[in-house]
Amino acid sequence: MKSDDVVQRLFAEFLVQGGVSLYRYSLNGETYFGFADMEGKEVVMREDKLNEDLTNYEEKLEARRGQVQQVGSVMSKDPTVAGRLWKMDLTSNALLKMVKRYNERYCTSEGDCVVFKSDTKKSRSVIPHIYIGAAASYAWFRSSAQTFKTQPVTISPEAKYSGIVPTVMVGADMTYPRQSQHLMTQVELSFTPYSIKADEQLVADKESSMKCTELALRLGVGYVFSQESSVSPFLVGGLSVRHQMSMEENNRVSILQKGKDSDIPFASDKDYRSVTHLGVYAGVGVNIGHLRLAAIYDLPFSGGSGLQMKSALTVGIAYRF
């Protein structure tokens, strides 16, 4: 390289080789990137992050103006290159992705695009994306009709409960870049305290309700539409295991005792049962940077008598590490 009539020998590192090649080198503590096409046209630009130092933001934009036009002339088949360069950080990873995609789309006649820079993340066979978050669940419960052996015999009707409850969860989405750009598996553990009023009044002048606490485990398989994009929608579905503890129903039934003129309501019908249900679930979501938004529909395989969960719809937000 010749600077101020002094010839300097620099060692450049190839990042991408193809119809348009990309390399980088260091000079006086700064990192520079070079773009070169098959006809020998070459453009050099300095590493730069627009939001790194806002005090000279306008100067950076002015300096970038000429560089954008020059790079656009090297990658002229894609009219969006210039616009993207205005908005992106000029770093190794960002420029490597841009040049690689350009070659794969517009320079196929020059042979396969070769990437020299190792990507340690993509070289791993499994990449876990751990997340922690909170959600709101709308759940439906049903309690079957019950018969009490009193004098006279009392039969309580079926009870239904539905309402919104809070949920907290921790989980991990695993991707497999060596096998597929779209495959994902999921494991998630959630905790939900249920306290829901009955849909209809069951006892005169009393509010009927149910309570329980739940630990749920989800194991699923998903499809990710674009792992490399900052906005990445996905579909997921699988099996769930729900363990519900300390189940109780309050003011579930009143019993008419012989010789009395009015009902004497039970304060509660507590049996503190614990039940475990298998089930299935399906959902849709989107990853936006470190945010994970998802909506999940659960369908437990419940059966038998007593209080049973019928289904639940959960909408949540989580932070991905």
Write structural notes for this entry:
- The strands form five sheets. An eight-stranded antiparallel beta barrel has the order 8-11-12-13-14-17-18-19. Strands 6-5-4-3-7 form a five-stranded antiparallel beta sheet. A two-stranded antiparallel ribbon has the order 1-2.
- The radius of gyration is 31 Å and the shape is elongated.
- The longest helix is centred in the N-terminal third of the chain and has 18 residues, at 57-74.
- With 321 residues, it is mainly beta.
- A hairpin with a 2-residue loop joins β17 and β18.
- α1 (57-74) runs antiparallel to α2.
- The protein has helices at residues 57-74, 81-87, 92-106, 120-123; strands at residues 2-3, 6-7, 13-17, 20-27, 30-37, 42-46, 114-115, 127-143, 146-148, 154-156, 159-175, 183-197, 209-224, 231-250, 254-255, 264-265, 268-288, 291-300, 307-320.
- It contains four helices and 19 strands.
Structural class per helix/strand content?
A: mainly beta
Number of strands: 19
N-C termini distance = 42 Å
Q: Mean pLDDT, as a whole number?
A: 81
Low-confidence stretches: 258-268
Number of helices: 4
Which word captures the global form? elongated
Largest sheet, in brief, is:
8 strands, antiparallel, barrel
Q: Please state how the strands of the largest beta sheet are arranged side by side.
A: 8-11-12-13-14-17-18-19
